[in-house]
From TrEMBL:
Coiled coil residues, start to end: none
Pathway connected to this protein: Lipid metabolism; butanoate metabolism
Keyword Disulfide bond: no
One Pfam family cited in the UniProt record for this chain: 3HCDH
InterPro entries per the UniProt record, alphabetical: 3-OHacyl-CoA_DH_NAD-bd (IPR006176), 3HC_DH_C (IPR006108), 6-PGluconate_DH-like_C_sf (IPR008927), 6PGD_dom2 (IPR013328), D-isomer_DH_CS1 (IPR029752), NAD(P)-bd_dom_sf (IPR036291)
Protein name, UniProt field: 3-hydroxyacyl-CoA dehydrogenase
């Protein structure tokens, strides 16, 4: 896809949680969506979920394709959200590459696979293959990580960034491939220490969640970790913080844990979440979370932080 080229038909491959959310995003923006998923009953499940999604107003049309090739032929942009298995990605992208016009971007929602590991399966136009990794649910959470592979052209990256912005996203360009991209690596660092603290009996699962959701998580959702740290330094800003609190922080780094994800720890974490939620269903929690996300995004936009 050339930079500035308009998307009229969005192709969505895989209609699990991420795929459904991509479909909702396309419909909200008035795009025609052609979706495909090989699982039995996938179309029925997709159509059943769309009316329950918090659509502002569905202005586009949805059609379920009969094959991957059909998605490739008809879409102006393809968003793939299939299983996180390399051999499956390679098969999907090889089929899409064989069917799609040369200027159609082929993107993967992969949360950790690097595009170079499946891009070479595309023998026609590997330069238009890249990762566009969203965060669940993609129709609400603005972040998308754009990662090019060794064969991805700069034009494809630019076109992906521009198109995602047009769809209301806040894309960032990951300039070098690393497993897990960036945001998931940051999450993994926090989870590692959280698991360690629970494993050592220092704090409960529920208190870990409170420590983040009612503490730094509130500030991070508005400004992010660097800008938040800068503000904590007063007039001296980040320089003051690093000068005075940097050395103790390095000592904390040296004391961080390296937990093993043993069956016993897994059981402790799962039981801890069950106790924390106390019977609240996942469906109810998702509905409340999504309502709060919409209101938070509206507030950020109103005060100029969106």
């Amino acid at each position: 896809m050339r930079s500035g080229q308009k998307v009229r038909t969005l192709g969505v491959v895989g209609t699990g949680a991420i795929g459904v959310s991509w479909v909702v995003l396309g419909l909200e923006h008035g795009l025609d969506v052609v979706a495909w998923d090989p699982a039995e009953g996938a179309e029925e499940r997709l159509r059943a979920q769309i009316p329950n999604s918090p659509l502002v107003e569905p202005r586009g049309t949805l059609r379920f394709a009969e094959s991957l090739a059909e998605v490739g032929r008809e879409a102006d942009l393809v968003l793939e959200s299939g299983p996180e298995r390399l051999e499956v990605k390679r098969e999907i992208f090889a089929a899409l590459d064989a069917a799609a016009a040369p200027d159609v971007l082929l993107t993967s929602s992969s949360s950790g696979l690097m595009p170079s590991t499946f891009q070479d399966a595309c023998t026609h136009h590997p330069e238009r293959v890249l990762v566009a990794h969203p965060f669940n649910p993609p129709h609400l959470v603005p972040l998308v990580e754009v990662v090019g592979g060794s064969a991805t052209s700069s034009d494809a990256v630019d076109a992906a960034l521009e198109t995602l912005r047009h769809l209301g996203k806040r894309p960032i360009h990951i300039r070098r491939e690393v497993p897990g991209h960036v945001a998931n690596r940051l999450q993994a660092a926090l989870w590692r220490e959280a698991y360690h603290l629970v494993d050592q009996g220092i704090v409960s699962v529920a208190d870990i969640d409170t420590a983040i959701s009612d503490g730094p998580g509130l500030r991070w959702s508005l400004l992010g970790p660097f800008a938040t740290q800068h503000l904590s330094g007063g007039p001296g800003g980040l320089g003051h913080v690093l000068e005075h609190l940097g050395p103790p922080m390095v000592d904390w780094w040296d004391d961080l844990g390296h937990p093993a994800l043993t069956p016993a720890l897994v059981e402790k974490l799962v039981d801890g979440v069950d106790e924390e939620l106390d019977g609240t269903s996942a469906e109810e929690l998702v509905e409340r979370r999504d309502q709060a996300l919409r209101r938070l995004l509206e507030i950020k936009a109103d005060i100029g932080l969106g």
